[in-house]
Predict the 3D structure of the following.
Amino acid sequence: MLNMARSSYYYKEGVNLQKQKEEADLRDRIEEIVVEYERYGYRRVTAALQREGLKVNHKRVQRIMREEDLICKIKKRWVVTTDSNHPYRVYPNLMKDAKITGVNQALVADITYIRILTAFVYLAVILDVFSRKVVGWALSRRIDTELTRAALQMAIETRRPPEGCIHHSDRGVQYAAHDYVDDLNAAGFLISMSRKGNPYDNAQAESFMKTLKNEEVYLWDYKTFEDVKKRIPYFIEEVYNEKRLHSALGYCPPNEYESLVARNNKRKRQNQLTSEVLCV
């Protein structure tokens, strides 16, 4: 304080205390977000903070998460869920050249396993390619066609996709079996399948499964099938579809993204009708 006025000293101390408080508040909020969404990376956390009106960049968030040990590492396990050695017809990949511009134009399907105490249970999901929303899902102790048919039925009932909508999956027997294909044909789907052993052909479904494992399955010690039936529907409907920010959707959750697109499309139609009336 020898060469500094008392007022300047206290002003400087006040600024420092304010900065420390702001830093502490930001750390607390980041921790709250990571506790709720335990596998958010620093970019997704940054997007969540910015949506709340906070002016913060990803470098600062990354530094805080690293200092607080909030960047977690995940253990991976592997169980084969695709059996493509079957006598059923294999369909060509229609997604390779498809241009998806809206909802209900293409759905992707996949199966994954979930470990319980002494066995595995299986989850079949169907996503809308455009919005990444899970529109159908089913759980079972058996990895069979009834599992995939249950997920498909939910998707058909909730979305009522128009005739010509693409249904894309891997070549697994659960998707190639006659009963499943009959359901697809009855609903007017165009059937599409990935190339053999190429998960990139079904990237949207693979991405969801990775999210499910990292942000839900690996964090819980499921002991029974009942445990899985309680948690998985909650994660799909309440977290993933409703809240989780998706980088491919401009950091919007799928439900919000679909609503935004619907409003924009409605506005465009209204403007077009107005233009047509003015022209007449």
